[in-house]
Design a protein that fits this description.
It comes from Bowmanella yangjiangensis. By secondary structure, this protein is of the alpha+beta class. Helix content is about 30%, strand content about 20%.
Length: about 600
């Protein structure tokens, strides 16, 4: 389930053949409603693979705060549970949802890496819905993913092997490359460098030695700038298969993970075996993940790993990445995948201008005009969106509206430029309260930001992923001025992720009697963690140096703001390091807003 409101419902699915669907709805009174107003988009991406986005307009608005069962009937009149019996919760014969009149309870998170050795936070959502899905008071209204839903740039060997088996099974389209050492996707799959050494596949002739030097010499990391990029996805078919494998267990039924070991170079076989155990455990929960996503409206926004690590971090990075046809294609393919499998469902009507280019690129059984489509997507300015909920939700694009440094190509870009921040301020005016989704925390850990600033001073921003709001003076000053503006909403909840640990801040303005109240809830990751020992030291030193009463705070850009940290229950520090899903329970009284992280072993409240 994607964007939903009382007069429209949106569903995303993938099928092995062209289909047409009829939506049926059944509320608590047993009323059957069939919608004939269908906005239907079907994109063929392979011989046996169609990406479907179904956008239904309803003649009669749905009653809010009431559980509604639904079904999608194919041409033969067969419904979802005929094809997917495990899609329903115990006691139900159909999947269902609830549209709440107010966003009083929501789930959010980021950073879900399949091969990270931790539990999958989406399984905790499944448990919550199994228990509370009919309960209007306690069930979440929606779920927000704030970035890194997939790791295109950091793929386990077993996952890449599974991707290639799915490509073959579904006949996903092949493509040709320019400026690469492999000329087609078929050559890529058969290359001896396909697994664990893909950095060898980038072109290294004299014409682009500068490209290679800027990508790898400055960053001191392989392929692009990701430390785990030895299996970086390259072609569009790989990206599409990755999405099919992280949302559902269906395609895994065609995969033999153990058979992939024969393709792996000997020195990487131990790593493959270790990753294989983690990936197999991840797969065991995917039927419940699919069930979860079928029962709650879900919204998404990209961060860097959805495309590639450090995406648009600096002006120099952009000049290198977009100046060569092969690197531009790799980034563009990931962006096409995001459009088809994530962005499209947030606000379907907003993407009408892209549909013509999309249909022109994928037709007649093969990819055509792919570079034209990529050029269109790279120029697209509407990835961000707002939801007319109560309170209003504003989701920021902090990746493609960058405020680029004019003084040095190596300095970090601002996360949003002046024009985008001005538009944001207009969206805020007149709102009594706002939920603001920023993939990166607006108010981060000051010690870590100081370390990033030191590396940036020496021209090594790529080495420490110096992506924070305070890294660029222009963007930092404008976002802080927005919070200080007299027309700013009196109540903010900021949701963020990215950093692989969780923390909660209460923020007010110093020296101002009637300050807006800002609660920032950072929940990361859904299936990822920060190195535990290192984070404990960062936590301790940060508290010593930058406690709420520390005079060092007056040396930072946030000196006119008072930041108080909420403490995770049962923990000495303030940074919580465990995979899970964030939950915020809103209240009209700011002091009563609850923030927690639900993990496999426990639920931790931030007090």
């Amino acid at each position: 389930m994607r964007h939903c409101e009382p007069t429209q419902l949106t569903f995303w699915l993938a099928t092995t053949r062209a289909c047409s669907f009829e939506l049926t709805l059944q509320d608590a009174k047993g009323l059957q409603v069939a919608s004939e107003q269908l906005r239907y988009e079907q994109i063929r991406v392979g011989e046996h693979c169609y990406i479907q986005l179904l956008h239904f307009a309803l003649d009669t608005p749905l009653t809010t705060d009431t559980y509604v069962h639904y079904d999608l009937l194919d041409e033969a009149g067969q419904g979802l549970c005929t094809h997917i019996p495990e899609l329903c919760y115990e006691g139900d014969t159909l999947p269902g949802f609830m549209l709440k009149s107010r966003v009083d309870n929501l789930l959010h998170g980021s950073c879900r890496k399949p091969h990270h050795p931790s539990s999958d936070g989406l399984l905790e959502v499944d448990k919550l819905l199994a228990d509370k899905r009919h309960d209007a008071q306690h069930r979440p209204a929606l779920m927000l993913f704030s970035g890194d839903q997939v790791y295109v740039d950091d793929v386990a060997g077993p996952t890449l092997w599974a991707i290639h088996q799915v490509i073959q099974k579904l006949g996903l389209y092949t493509e040709e490359f320019a400026g690469a050492t492999v000329s087609t996707s078929e050559e890529l799959y058969s290359s001896p460098h396909c697994y664990y050494i893909r950095e060898q596949l980038l072109p290294k002739n004299k014409a682009n030695e500068k490209l290679v030097e800027r990508f790898f010499g400055g960053a001191r990391k392989p392929i692009f700038t990701s430390v785990g990029a030895h299996n970086h996805l390259i072609c569009l078919a790989e990206v599409i298969a990755m999405y099919l494998l992280v949302w559902s267990d269906t395609c895994w039924k065609w995969v033999d993970l153990d058979a992939g070991r024969a393709r792996i170079p000997d020195k990487f076989k131990p790593r493959y075996d270790k990753e294989n155990l983690t990936v197999k455990e991840f797969v065991l929960g995917l039927s419940k993940v699919r069930r979860t996503l079928a029962h709650i409206p879900t919204y998404m926004i990209f961060d860097d790993h959805d495309i590639t690590d450090d995406w648009n971090l600096t002006r120099g990075w952009e000049e290198s990445a977009y100046g060569h046809p092969f690197s531009r294609r790799i980034i563009g393919n990931a962006l096409i995948g995001y459009l088809l499998c994530q962005g499209w469902g947030n606000k379907p009507q907003c993407f009408d201008p892209l549909l013509e280019a999309l249909h022109a690129s994928v037709k007649a059984g093969e990819l055509e005009q792919q570079d034209n489509l990529i050029n269109t997507l790279l120029d697209w300015q509407e990835w961000h969106y707002c939801l007319a909920t109560s309170p209003k939700i504003i989701v920021l694009d902090t990746r493609t509206h960058r405020w680029r440094s004019e003084s040095s190509p190596a300095k970090p870009s601002g996360l949003m430029d002046w024009e985008s921040l001005s538009d944001l301020q207009q969206e805020l005016i007149g709102e009594p309260a706002v939920i603001l989704v920023s993939p990166a925390p607006i108010f981060g850990v000051k010690l870590i930001e100081a370390v990033q600033r030191i590396f940036t001073f020496f021209g090594k921003a790529l080495m420490v992923d110096a992506e924070n709001w305070m890294a660029h003076p222009g963007a930092a000053n404008v976002i802080l001025n927005i919070f200080r503006h007299h027309k700013t909403p009196p109540h903010f909840v900021i949701l963020s992720g990215d950093v692989h640990y969780s923390f909660v801040y209460d923020i007010t303005l110093r020296f101002r009697k009637h300050s807006p109240k800002i609660l920032q809830v950072t929940a990361s990751g859904i299936k990822n963690c920060f190195p535990a020992g290192l984070l404990r030291w960062f936590d301790r030193i940060n508290l010593w140096l930058y406690g709420s009463r520390s005079p060092l705070n007056f040396l930072t850009k946030r000196r006119r703001m008072l930041i108080k940290r909420r403490q995770p229950q049962g923990q000495r520090g303030v940074l919580y390091n465990n995979s899970g899903i964030g939950q915020v329970i809103l209240s009209d009284e700011y002091e009563h807003i609850q923030a927690r992280v639900i993990s496999k072993d426990k639920t931790v409240e931030f007090k």
